[in-house]
Design brief:
Helix content of chain B: over 70%
Order of helices and strands of chain A: HHHHHH
Helix content of chain A: 55-70%
Largest interface: A-B, 75 and 74 residues
Oligomer: heterodimer
Strand content of chain B: under 5%
Low-confidence stretches of chain A: none
Number of strands of chain B: 2
Distance between the termini of chain B: 58 Å
Mean pLDDT of chain B: 84
Number of domains of chain B: 1
Low-confidence stretches of chain B: 1-13, 46-56
Strand order of the largest sheet of chain B: 1-2
Order of helices and strands of chain B: HHHHHHHHHEEHHHHH
Strand content of chain A: under 5%
Amino acid sequence: MADKLKATEEQLAYALLLDKGMKLGLLMLIITFSIYLTGFLTPHVPVDDLPKYWSMPVHKYLESANIHPGWAWLYMLDKGDFLNFTGIAFLAAVTLICFARIVPILFRNKDSVYGIIAILELLVLALAASGLLKTGGH
Amino acid sequence: MENDVSAVPKNGFAGFDRKLRKSRTAMVCLCALVLTVFMLLSMAFASPEAVQAAEGGAKSAMPWWAWPLILFVVTFLLGIVAVLGGVGGGVLFVPIIGGFFPFHLDFVRGAGLLVALAGALAAGPGLLKKGMADLRLALPVGLIASACAIVGAMIGLALPTNVVQTSLGATILGIVLIMLMAKKSEYPDVKQADALSTALRINGIYHEPSSGQNVNWKVHRTPQGLATFIIIGVMAGMFGLGAGWANVPVLNLMMGAPLKVSVATSKFLLSITDTSAAWIYVNNGAVLPMIVVPSIIGIMLGSIVGVRILAKTKPAAVRYIVIVMLLFAGLRALLKGLGIWT
C-alpha cells in the first residue's frame, strides 16, 4: 500500500526531466524573444511588415516571405525571428526527451508492454517532428 | 467551531461579507473588461480598412507592435479568467484570438497549441510527482490521442479556412453545451475493472488531503475510452484547442477515474497530444514567434495571478461568464466561417 502511494520510478524520472526541460525551454524563449525585440539580430521578415503577413494563410505567407517550411529554420538562426524557433522547438521536444528517458527504466523493471507503448509514442512524436509530414495547402 | 471563527476578519461578519462582495464585484468587472476588449477589437477589425487589410494582406493603420501588445494584455486577462473559470487556456485562446484579432486562423491554432503545451509542461512535473497525474493511465491514451492529433493538424492545415472556422465555431458551441450539461463524479463507482485496464495495470491510490484518506481507484470501459480519444486527438490537432474539455469527461465519466486524477492526468496528457500537433504546425510554417511568445508569457503570468486570486475567492459567476465568452466567441467563429460576420 505504501509503495503504491508513491509515484513510480519512471513517473518521477519523467517529472524531473520535464521540470528541467520546461524551465530551460521557457528561459530560451524569453532570451531569444528579447534578442528579436531589441533588433540585435536582423529578422528575416522586417517587423514593420508583419501585419502584412500574419493575416495571410500559412501557405501564402511562406511563399510571399520566401520561407521554406520544415527544419530550414536551422540555417536561419542568424535572423532574429528564426532564432526564436530554438526555444519553441526545444519546448516541443521536451516530451520526446522524457519518453526517451523512461524507456530503459520500463524495460529494466520488466514492464515491457509499457516499454513498447513508450517506444511507439517516441516514434509518433519523432514522425511529427521530422518534418516529413507536409500538408497540401488551402 | 474555532476554525469558523478564525476565518472571520476582525471587523466581524459584516466586514467579511463586504470583502467577499467586493472581490466578487472585482471579478465580474474583470470579466466585463475582457468582454469589452473583445467587442472593441471586433469593431476595430470590422472596419472596412481592417477587413481590406485582412483579406489582401495590406498594411494596417496601427503600428506593428500594437497587436502583439494587445495580445499580451488579452492573454494575460485570459490566463486569469481561465484559472478562475476552471478551463484550459487553449480553449479560450483559439476562438477569442481567432475571432477578434487580425491574425490568420492558421497562426492562431499554431499558437493555441503551443500555449496549451506550455501550460501542460509547466503543470506536469508537480502533478506527476504528487501522483495525481497517472503515467499508466496517460500513456495508452496519449499514444492514440497524439497519433490522431497529427492527422487532425494535417486536416486542419489542408482544409479551406472557412470550413475550419465554421467547424471551430460549431465545436466551441458544443463545448459550451458540455460545460453546461456534463456532470462530474468525484469518485465514480467502478464495480469491476475491465480486462484491458487489468492487463495494463491501470489503477492506483492517491492521497486526498482534504479528507486525509487514501483513495483506491481503477477504471472500466477502457476500449471505449481509447476509441473516444481518436476523436479527441483529431479535434485537438485540427483546432489547436487543447483538449481538457473532452479529456476530463471521458476519463472521469466514461472510464471512471476519480475527478482529481482525471483533471491532473488530462492536464499532463495535453503535453503529449499537443506536442505531436505542435510539431506539424511548426514544420508547416504556421508558427509566428511574434504571436506565440507574447501569448505564452501573457497566459502564464495571468495564470499565476489567477491562482493567487483563486486562493482568496472563487465566485461561481466567473464560470458562467467564461461560458458566455465562449458562446460569444463560438458564434463569432461560426458566423465568420459562414461569411455572415466577417
